[in-house]
Amino acid sequence: MNTSIFFKSTIFLALTTLTCLKSWGSELKTALKLQGETLNFEILGQKSWDYDIQRLKSGKQTKVQLSIKGLSNESIQALKVQTNPFVESIKVVPKSLDDISIVEFVLKNDQVEAFDYLTDQPSKLIVDFYLNDESKIKSTDVLPKDKTKKVSKNTLPDKKNTAR
Q: Disulfide check for 67: which of 43, 52, 106, 139 has CB 3.0–4.6 Å away?
């Protein structure tokens, strides 16, 4: 009887250890895809996210830097070869001693904006890059009040001035 309890507890401990090691050792995976007028950068692989994102101006270049822990080497290599209309280049600063990688997106121009958010089930960190072109908004969409012409639907033509 003691042998079966010992055997069951040993199996339980072995499975628990393997599960914990697998979850601790899991690295983040990335995906970069163009969706309509947005470049969508996704990172998945964590339940709780600890990251930092900031926009920097370096000379004539505008950059968005994302600092995140646990990015896999395969994901880093995949990021370097992607091309898109919003980001000129993607550079990854290798992992530091505390396992933090810095992903640097060099934007094509100052009109490109970045928006980051988190999703549930599956848990993802997403950074969207899009063109913020305010010149698309036309000033003719709103007319000044003094130039509008009022037309009444009940106006009938003047019968006195009608020639037959």
A: 52
